[in-house]
Amino acid sequence: MKILVPLKRVADPDNANKVKVAGTKLETTGLEWKPNPFDEYAVETALRLTENGAATKQRQGEVVVVSFGPKEVEATLRAALATGADRAIRVDVTDDKLDGDLVARALKAIVEKEKPDLVLCGKQAVDGDSNQVGQLIAEYLGWPQATFAGSIKSEGAPGKETALVVHREVDGGTINLKVTLPAVVSVDLRIVAPTSVKSVYTADGFKYPDGVRFAALMAIMAAKKKPLVEEKIETLAADTALKIEYLGFELPAARKAGVKVKDVAELVTRLKSEAKVL
Amino acid sequence: MDFSISDDHKSIRESVRTLVRSFGDDYWLARDHDGEFPREFHRAMADAGWLGITMPTEYGGAGLGVTEAAIMMHEVASHGGGMAATSTVHINLFGPHPIVVFGTDAQKKRWLPRLIEGQDQVAFGFTEADAGLNTTALKTFARKVDGGYLVNGDKVWTSTAQVANKIMLLTRTTKIEDCKRPTDGITIFYTDLDRAKRDKRIAVQLIHKMGRKAVDSNSIQIEDLFIPEEDRIGEEGKGFSYILHSLNPERLLIAAEAIAIGQDALRRAVKYAKEREVFGRPIGKNQGIQHPLAENWMDLEAAWNMVMKGAWLYDQHQPCGAEANSAKFLGARAGYNAALQAVMTHGGFGYAKEYHVERLLREVTITRIAPVTEQLIMSFIAEKVLDLPKSY
Ligand SMILES: Cc1cc2nc3c(=O)[nH]c(=O)nc-3n(C[C@H](O)[C@H](O)[C@H](O)COP(=O)(O)OP(=O)(O)OC[C@H]3O[C@@H](n4cnc5c(N)ncnc54)[C@H](O)[C@@H]3O)c2cc1C
To answer: Which of A75, B58, B97, B283 shows a CA-CA span of 20 to 30 A to B125?
Structure first.
């Protein structure tokens, strides 16, 4: 199976307090970057779907990672190559010239060229939280989609996978779907639990360590030799005008100080009269 | 002069960071409490190939330099693990250097891959109680017998001897009084460390110490231990010159570790100074709190630059003794001062284990003492750099 994983770098959410708002723009200079965690889960999922969990050095199929951004995003792509992805594509463009719709249309062009069996993405990027690219690509390609996957099992014969069984959590339960390949799937946090992904190569009952895998030193060195090509946004999308415009950003209001109650009686009174939860 | 950070160095740092961060403060606090060797951490680092970062590629290593190793160790020490985290892996990096440089192909094949994969762990038996920093005064003696040597003597501070299955042992094969120079007559071995043998040829006793509880240090007694000829590294009597090769890299790495621990403590202090409100203002608004932290930051950054300079020189095969020793001195002091200041910044809470800074202070202290003390570094600089008369 060939899988395409779009991968975005985001400002390190641990340092979100350093983000400054300048008019209708977020000031990004000086921020630390890291891969969007949900995209890292998507890469991990792609690796798990294209291997026998007991022999992770051998890839059964191909994983191609794509990112949009300036030269520096190559570090993010190399990191994905170091964990096991085979090839990388960087679409040369700066963040201010992108919106979710343009990303989805450019990805459509890449998909038409690469012909993957599956586009696997994170459910959303933790910077803008837009949660739209996966859905838009599916629409533009006319492919089936399954969003917020918590577990995935591939079906069919090795090398000839035909469908994916996807579980997604919803309020009060789970939905089980089967999507025919080619398809678009977006993943949620639970996908990196030890038994969430099962490929046609992996033995029943096999357990992965929790979370995404670490890049090994030798793999980091080897990743330097893996192919990383550059594409121009203009050749992928005829229309590069933005359809989504940010009008402004506001920080959440500062939290007001709490009150200390004397005793349980006062607490109950206040919960009744002020908070009105009792 | 180019201070930009290469993509390779970035990816080393980021990959090590991801791994190290998966072992949180709680993991290290628990090891500080129970004293168990951080096996899970050692395994994870070995599995990801980090133990081989400086080892030759022919034997499964990555063949990188001390610059890369310093970046790696800086990251290992940056996330709450202190010296317990660093010492778990540090010993592998340049300790086995005598094997790499002076071992035979057969020895390298026999020993290095197992070290890189983390199947073997090695302890270093150099220091002796009666010799102290005057290493050539060591008394452990290896007497030539048929097919090998019979070794007797005592070592002290031998770290990881409770968990290691190998030991690199510095011995005399000629008594100092029969040697032309005190550095002659010293021979180095890499051999099995078998604590379970019924006759207990090597007895190992734990030393209870101030910090780094999870990585043990010991006093060991060696009695009539037979070491086969094939476990001797290089020539008989030349051992002292062999260990010199690994001293400068080791000092640079210790410096990087001390700096990282100091920066870890400083980050915690800054965070606390912003959050803790007393007299209706964050304590960090007071210059009495800010200024020492600002000074810590400057000292740590300056020391880091000295580490990078020493590492660059070493990797360019240039002399780096002055820089490596200075980096170790400056780094350990800066790290120690920052950890101490972090405790003070936290006030009473800094004394509570829950805030981790008292542990970082206990962890970092050793970097001022080992592998060489501040006094000896100053004597070295005075004598070798300033050309003043030897003082001792
Ligand atoms: C936690 C820990 C782990 C260690 N791990 C290992 C290990 O794995 N393997 C190993 O071989 N060793 C190990 N060591 C030993 C370490 O390298 C020594 O403790 C260190 O080299 C200092 O030697 P010493 O303790 O004998 O000090 P001493 O030589 O007794 O010195 C005591 C003090 O006197 C000062 N002094 C001595 N001579 C002079 C002079 N001429 N001028 C001025 N001042 C002087 C010293 O600087 C020091 O302050 C470890 C030590 C510790 C604490």
So the answer is: B58
In short, whether B373's Cβ falls inside 6 Å of ligand 1 is yes
Domain with CATH 1.10.540.10 in chain B: 7-116
CA-closest candidate to residue A6, choices A82, A116, A97 = A116
Nearest CA to ligand 1 atom 50: B157
Class of domain B7-116: mainly alpha
Does A75 contact B8 at a Cβ distance shorter than 8 Å? no
Selection from B42, B38, B212, B216 nearest residue B123 by Cα: B216
Interface check B58 vs A, CB under 8 A: no
DSSP SS3 for B88 = helix
CA B238 / ligand 1 centre spacing (Å): 23
Q: How far is the CA of A109 from the centre of ligand 1 (A)?
A: 66
B281: its two tokens:
């203002």
Q: Is B136 on the interface with A (CB under 8 A)?
A: no
Which residue type does A62 have?
A: E
Distance set, CA A272 to CA A8, A261, A262, A275, A278 (Å): 47, 14, 16, 6, 5
Tell me which of B369, B378, B383, B392 to substitute to probe ligand 1's pocket, judged by most ligand atoms within 8 Å of the beta carbon: B369
The DSSP secondary structure of B19-77, one letter per residue, reads HHHTS-HHHHHHHHHH----HHHHHHHHHTTGGGTTS-GGGT-----HHHHHHHHHHHT
User: Taking an 8 Å Cβ-Cβ cutoff, which residues of chain A contact chain B?
Assistant: 34, 74-75, 78-79, 82, 211, 214-221, 223-224
**Could you say which architecture CATH assigns to the domain B122-236?**
Beta Barrel (2.40)
- Residue B224 phi, psi dihedral angles, 5° rounding: 50, 45
d(CA A220, CA A224): 7
Cα–ligand 1 centroid distance for B369 (angstroms): 6
Inter-chain touch B62–A217, beta carbons under 8 Å:
yes
**Assigned token pair, A219:** 């793999």
What is the tens place of the pLDDT at every residue in B101-146? 999 999 999 999 999 999 999 999 999 999 999 999 999 999 999 9
Is residue A35, in this structure, part of any structural domain at all? yes
Whether residue B133 has its Cβ less than 6 Å from ligand 1: yes
* Max CA distance (Å), chain A: 69
CATH superfamily of B241-385: Butyryl-CoA Dehydrogenase, subunit A, domain 3 (1.20.140.10)
- pLDDT score, position A26: 75
The answer to pTM > 0.90 is no
Q: What pLDDT sits at residue B199? A: 64
Indicate whether residue B124 lines ligand 1 (CB < 6 A).
Answer: yes
Whichever domain contains A233, its CATH number is: 3.40.50.620
Residue B176, Cβ density class (10 Å: 0-12 exposed, 13-18 middle, ≥19 buried): middle
- Judge whether A261 lies within some domain: no
Q: Which of B149, B154, B126 is nearest to B244 (CA)?
A: B126
- Give the number of domains in chain A: 1
Chain A residues within 8 A of B50 when measuring between CB atoms: 217
- Ligand 1 and B135: CB distance under 6 A: no
Taking the CA of residue B132 as reference, the ligand 1 atom at the shortest distance is 26
Residues whose CB falls within 8 Å of the CB of residue A210, separated by 6 or more in sequence, listed in order: A192, A193, A194
Residue of A nearest to B46 (CA): A216
Distance CA B255, CA A261 (A): 51
Residue B374 CA: which ligand 1 atom is closest?
Answer: 47
Q: Is the pLDDT of residue A190 over 80?
A: yes
